[in-house]
Amino acid sequence: MPEPAISIVIPTFNRAEVLFEALKAVAAQGFKDFECITVDNGPSTDATGEAAGEFSEKDPRFIYLRTHEKGDFKARNIGCGRARADLILTIDDDWIMTDTGTLEHIVRSFETGDRLGGLGISEYYPDGRAKGRAESPAKGSINWLDRIRETGFYYPGMISRWGLIGNKFHYLEIGRKHMVHHVRSSAFAFRKQVFEMAGGFPPCYSIDGNAYRAETEFCLRIASLGWKVAFTTEVQGLHKVLPKQAGSFSRGGDARYFYVTGRNNTLFFLRNYWSRAASPLFLAWDMLVGNSTQPGFLRFFSTHKHLRGVRFPDGSSPLGKSMKGKWQGFIDYHRGLHRMEAGK
Question: What is the model's pLDDT at position 234?
Answer without folding.
Answer: 86
